[in-house]
Write a structure and sequence with these properties.
Length: about 475
């Protein structure tokens, strides 16, 4: 099977600009037939998507193992199972989400009725990153289908096995005039961005997010930008240390730290710093064994460029745990570093890997000020047993989303919209938020013909005087 997937990758062909225009034109024509707007049709496509993934679960797991060295457990829970949950939730609620909503009208509009009708934008572009390459391409697609759009998906070129699999899967499930994957590198992304879409949903880095928004502005295309940044984790003096350690290690080292909402750096109260670090070391060993780079449960770094970038960070502080690397496997062990300078790259760039700078504070105010002095994070985590401390942190600091006494878990519930703020992104999705993201809210007023007030009209007979 692995040989077969590799063979497919070698066959992967980039689509030319003319090819992209043709797909887009076909999708516009298909969208105009109105077929994608039928509720039964949308439900059917979502069911097909779930069945299609189910049929190829093993291929997904193999492709993720080849591209990222992901374990089967991690692939299932973070790339496959999460999609099933999202599809089930969407199917369950779609009828009520899609229904036109009646709203009140003011006295000036007596006799009339107001409606908000959710309508699909049309043909949307979904651009995906490489870190959860399967899930982050298909999760937005669920929202796009639910809302009644057609879609072009651009998978990440850095995970070619998953990219190829996505293309094959979507070809089997849908006509290209409805949903199509366009594979290729940066210049394919650029060629796509030249075209006019009705909506662009981008997941990736803040730097490319700016490129996307600039391109979208040329056509006044609305965008959702799911970006990244440095997500802090605060562990206060009254935290439950064993639980905090377990949940931090879970969030930081899953997928070898290549998670957009992974804790990026640790802010720990000086009173508990030593005990928390000891607890974190124990949990790392319990999760990944004494030699994590040999553990099949522990992912590799996606490519050489990122491996070298991360290796460079190791020189920017004192390694207090981990630091082992394996060049041929492109693996870096879970690593804790101290004495990092706040203006050094490891503390100014998104780490996006298994290196965890540890900073200490003596008053909560200090921790809050440090976070305030930086761009608004995508995620923030605070560990404390005190409600006032949690309220102060979540109330005062602006961030995309996060957890009190946990990490990552806010992303895995369809009841919480997921997205960034400021430099970490704009817009959000998951559950109803996905449906809303891919729908225009069309406002319609239905006027009564039973009576008509003449005072609203000009009257030549009465000059400027109103009657
Ligand atoms: P990236 O921005 O480099 O690439 C994402 C997509 O943009 C790819 O499809 C790529 O082809 C395209 N692209 C790259 N350079 C381009 C250019 N110059 N012009 C046009 N298109 C271009 O991001 P990545 O490295 O794949 O992913 C890592 C980043 O994504 C991190 O910052 C991470 O935090 C973020 N991320 C965010 C979320 C979220 O949900 N908010 C999820 C995963 C990853």
């Amino acid at each position: 099977l692995i040989i077969q997937i590799r063979y497919e990758v070698s066959l992967m062909k980039e689509v030319s600009a003319a090819g992209i225009q043709q797909i887009l034109q076909n999708q516009r024509t298909y969208f105009a037939t109105q077929e994608t707007k039928s509720l039964t049709f949308r439900m059917e496509q979502l069911k097909q998507l779930k069945a299609g993934i189910k049929k190829r679960e093993h291929e997904v797991i193999d492709a993720l193992a080849l591209d990222l060295g992901k374990s089967e457990l991690e692939s299932y829970s973070t790339e496959i199972g999460i999609l099933y949950e999202e599809i089930n939730f969407t199917i369950k609620h779609l009828k009520s989400w899609a229904k036109p909503k009646k709203v009140k009208t003011p006295v000036t509009h007596v006799g009339s009725k107001g409606f908000i009708i959710p309508e699909p934008y049309g043909t949307v572009l979904i651009m995906a990153p490489w870190n959860y390459p399967f899930q982050l391409a298909l999760s937005p697609l669920i929202g796009a289908i639910a809302a009644g759009n057609t879609a072009i998906i651009k998978p990440s070129e850095l995970t070619p096995n998953v990219s190829s699999l996505l293309s094959t899967l979507l070809q089997k499930l849908y006509l290209p005039s409805y949903v199509s994957a366009v594979e290729g590198g940066v210049h394919t992304s650029q060629a796509l961005l030249e075209e006019r879409f009705d909506y662009i949903f981008f997941t990736g880095s803040p730097a490319v997010g700016k490129v996307v928004m600039e391109a979208a502005s040329r056509h006044l295309t609305p965008v959702t930008l799911e970006l990244g940044g440095k997500s802090p984790v605060i562990v206060h003096e009254d935290a439950n240390i064993p639980l905090a350690a377990k949940r931090i290690v879970f969030g930081k080292f899953m997928n070898a730290g290549q998670t957009c909402i992974a804790p990026d750096y640790l802010l720990v109260h000086s009173k508990i710093k030593a005990s928390l670090i000891e607890a974190i070391k124990e949990v790392i060993q319990a999760f990944y064994g004494p030699n994590p780079i040999e553990s099949p449960a522990y992912s590799k770094i996606v490519n050489e460029r990122h491996y070298n970038r991360l290796s460079g960070y190791l020189k920017e502080g004192m390694v207090i745990y981990g630091g082992e690397r394996n060049d041929s496997k492109q693996k870096i062990a879970p690593t804790l570093i101290e004495r990092v300078k706040l203006d050094s790259p490891v503390m100014t760039e998104e780490i996006f890997g298994p290196i965890f700078p540890v900073l200490e504070y003596t008053s909560l105010e200090e921790a809050i000020e440090l976070i305030h002095s930086r761009p608004k994070p995508l995620a923030l985590y605070v560990f404390t047993e005190n409600k006032n401390t949690a309220d102060e942190v979540t109330g005062r600091i602006s961030f995309g989303g996060g957890c009190i006494n946990d990490t990552l878990m806010h992303i895995a519930t369809p009841h919480l919209p997921f997205g960034g703020v400021g430099e970490s992104g704009m817009g959000n999705y998951h559950g109803k938020a996905s449906f809303d993201t891919f729908s225009h809210r069309k406002s319609v007023l239905k006027q009564t013909n039973r009576f008509d007030f003449s005072f609203r009209y000009p009257s030549a007979k009465n000059g400027l005087q109103r009657v």
